[in-house]
């Protein structure tokens, strides 16, 4: 009993201590490492540094980033989220080329990078980012003009990269094929949220990204319908041009009332080969539905945060024979009131049909899973293989 009363954390195995430390943030981890030598060694365990989020830590300077990289970040890092100094009174440089090179060498397993309020105008190109990145998120950042342009590597650099990779594999005792080039951009998912400097030229330069399959554009005000038309995947005599490997596209405009609207989703009217999933949000839903009928390969359509009428959805989905899933998220459906004569008869018929299915007599209540039964029945006739999903949707009756 006395031994139990005098027991301390020293009696716990290191695996349990590491599990306890995993609930701490970055600041708390660094402070915990100052307690003793054993805790300092535990804090530097790479299992605690797989996902690092520094967005809540305001005022992180380049000096702090160097300290973190040299003392804590290593081979265990998978996801990194940083907050820049774009809205800070300090200002100054945030990400440098030397720090990004050191990040690439010390963290070879980094897959996701998220930047918030970062000024990237001091970087020449996105090729300075780690080549192992698969997900890149930019929120409220500033970009230079040719940031997304990918320059093909020279034969000398390709040979040097191949020889370096072969040397590393031999040193580790691994055998197998050596990749021809390791300097290409391997990003598969790109998220741009409230990036005012992103223009049509940036969008067109993404065509050189050979692995880009998911693109999310939210509140990107300088992208126009013409820029989206030029970036669409189209078949020509020389093959597919544009973003030919893109499978998922999201276009959303959730700006304040009175903000300039480019209606970029109208650019979908030229058709987009290979595009299987489309998400429209805010003020881009109306123009996007007018053009979505030209997307013959579309399988999933998601509409969110908008006002819709039943006829808008039916006109757009009439030709989408390959559509398999249609989602409505936080959509305000506007329903016109029915006339007393015909409308009353139609309500009775609908009540009988729904009552025959449910059998509980509660037809006057709005079903959250089916707020617009007439829309469901019409789409079931047009697209029998399509699944409908409603999330936080409301129905309002208008006099128009």
From TrEMBL:
Listed Basic and acidic residues bias regions: 341-355
F-box domain boundaries: 6-52
Biased composition (Low complexity): 158-176
Coiled-coil stretches: none
Pfam family, one: F-box-like
SMART domains with a match to the protein in the record: FBOX
InterPro entries: F-box-like_dom_sf (IPR036047), F-box_dom (IPR001810), LRR_dom_sf (IPR032675)
Residue ranges of the TM segments: none
Annotated spans, Disordered: 147-179, 341-372
Protein's recorded name: F-box/LRR-repeat protein 12-like
Organism: Salvelinus namaycush
Gene: LOC120041842
């Amino acid at each position: 009993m006395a031994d139990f009363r005098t027991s301390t954390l020293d009696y716990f195995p290191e695996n349990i201590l590491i599990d306890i430390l995993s609930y701490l943030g970055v600041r708390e981890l660094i402070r915990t490492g100052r307690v003793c030598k054993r805790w300092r060694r535990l804090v530097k365990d790479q299992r605690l540094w797989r996902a690092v989020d520094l967005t809540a830590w305001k005022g992180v300077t380049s000096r702090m980033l160097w300290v973190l990289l040299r003392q804590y970040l290593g081979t265990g890092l998978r996801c990194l989220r940083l907050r820049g100094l774009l809205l800070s009174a300090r200002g100054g440089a945030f990400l440098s080329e030397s720090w990004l090179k050191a990040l690439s060498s010390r963290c070879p397993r980094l897959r996701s990078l998220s930047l918030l309020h970062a000024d990237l105008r001091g970087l020449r190109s996105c090729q300075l980012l780690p080549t192992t990145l698969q997900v890149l998120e930019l929120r409220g950042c500033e970009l230079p003009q040719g940031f997304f342009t990918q320059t093909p590597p020279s034969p000398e650099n390709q040979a040097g990269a191949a020889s370096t990779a072969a040397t590393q594999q031999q040193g580790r005792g691994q055998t197998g094929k050596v990749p021809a080039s390791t300097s290409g951009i391997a990003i598969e998912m790109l998220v741009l949220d409230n990036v005012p400097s992103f223009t049509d030229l940036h969008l067109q330069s993404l065509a050189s990204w050979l692995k880009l399959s998911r693109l999310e554009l939210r509140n990107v005000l300088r992208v126009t319908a013409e820029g989206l038309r030029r970036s669409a995947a189209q078949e020509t005599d020389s093959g597919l041009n544009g973003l030919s490997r893109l499978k998922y596209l999201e276009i959303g405009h959730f700006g304040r009332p009175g903000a300039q609207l480019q209606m970029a989703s109208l650019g979908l009217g030229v058709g987009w080969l290979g595009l299987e999933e489309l998400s429209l949000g805010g003020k881009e839903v109306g123009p996007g539905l007018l053009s979505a009928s030209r997307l013959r390969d579309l399988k999933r359509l998601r509409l969110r945060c908008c006002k819709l009428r039943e006829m808008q959805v039916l006109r757009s989905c009439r030709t989408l024979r390959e559509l398999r899933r249609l989602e409505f998220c936080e959509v305000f459906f506007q329903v016109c009131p029915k006339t007393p004569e015909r409308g009353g008869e139609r309500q009775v018929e609908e009540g009988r049909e729904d009552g025959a299915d449910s059998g509980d007599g509660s037809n006057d209540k709005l079903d959250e899973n089916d707020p617009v039964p007439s829309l469901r029945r019409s789409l079931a006739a047009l697209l029998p293989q399509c699944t409908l999903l409603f999330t936080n949707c409301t129905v309002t009756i208008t006099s128009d």
